Amino acid sequence: MRENKDRQENEMENTKGMEKDTVHQTDEIEIDLWEICLVLIHNLALIISVGIMAALVAFLATQLFGVPKYESTTKIYILNKQENNAVTYSDIQLGTQLTKDYAELIQSRFVLEEVVQGMGMDLSYEEMKKKVSVTTPTDTRILAITVTDTDPVMAMQLANAIREAAAVHIMNVMDIQAVNVSETANMPMKKAGPSVLKNTFIGGVIGVFLMIAIVLVRFLMDDTVKTPEDVEKYLHLSTLAVIPLNEGETDSKKKKKKVKRN
To answer: Which residues of the chain have pLDDT under 50?
Structure first.
C-alpha cells in the first residue's frame, strides 16, 4: 500500500513538473526570424498596395495643397585692402576668415528690418530671416545671398535689396571701402519646392514601413495554435489526431439537409 502511494505521489509531482515546464515554455516563446519573413512575404501584396496608396496620397497632397516656393540668389565679393591698395596674401587670408562675420552682418536685424521697411512689407525680423540664407563656397570670399519666397519677382527684389543694404552695413561696420557685386539676383523660372518626387517617395516609404509594423504587431500578438506543427513547437506535445473542419462546408451541408427534409 505504501509503495502504491509513493508511486502515485511521484507521478503527481512529475505531472506538476511537466505542467510548470509547459507553462514556462509557452511564456518564453522564441521569435523565429524565418517565420517573420514568411509572414511578410505572405502579406507582400498588401504592403506594396498600401505603399502605393500612401505615395499617391502624398503626390496629390503636394500637387493640390503644396505652396510653390522660388529661390533667387545674388553674390557679392569682399576683399580687404591695405592703404597702398596692393592686395597681399594676408588680405586674401583675412578675407576668407571674415566671411562668417559678413554672413552674420547680412542676416542682422539692422539689414533685414531696413529692407522690410524700405519695401513696405508686413513681416517681423524672424519671418524675414527664415526667407534668407547666406552660403560661402569653399576657399572663396564670395558670399551667396539666397531669398526664398512664393512670388518669384518678390524673391528677386528682396535678394537685390538685401545685397544693397548689407553692402552699406558691412562697409560701415568692418571699415571696408567697397563691396563688389559678383552676380545680381536672377528671376527664378522653376520652383524650388516642394519637391513632388521627394514627397511621393517619402509617402510611399512611410506607408510601407507602417504596414510592415502593423503586420508584425498582429503576428506577434497572435498566440493561437493553428497547425499540428504549432502544437509540437510551442507546447511540446504530440498530436494524436486531426479533425478537418470547414465551417462553410458544414453550414452548406446543414442547409441542404434542411431543404431535403422539407
So the answer is: 20-29, 82-84, 87, 89, 256, 259-262
Strand partners, 120: none
The residue among 139, 194, 187, 140 whose CA lies nearest residue 160 is 187
Alpha-helical runs (H) found in 28-81:
33-42, 44-65
Question: φ, ψ for residue 123 (rounded to 5)?
Answer: -130, 145
Locus of grid cell 554672413: 103
CA distance 170 to 163: 10
In this structure, the number of other CB atoms found within 10 A of the CB of residue 170 comes to: 23
- What is the pLDDT, as a whole number, of residue 159? 94
**Residue 74 burial (10 A CB sphere; 0-12, 13-18, 19+):** buried
What is the structure's pLDDT at 89? 47
Half-sphere exposure of 31 (CA within 13 A, CB side): 10
Q: What is the pLDDT of residue 24?
A: 45
Where is 142: in which H helix or E strand? Answer: strand 142-149
Contact 189, 155 (CB under 8 A): no
Residue range 111-147, pLDDT digits in tens: 999 999 999 998 899 999 999 999 887 767 788 999 9
CA-only gyration radius of the chain, Å: 37
Residue 251 grid cell = 453550414
pLDDT at 215: 92
| SS3 of residue 183 by DSSP | strand
Q: Quote the CA–CA distance of 9 and 101 in Å, as a whole number.
A: 89
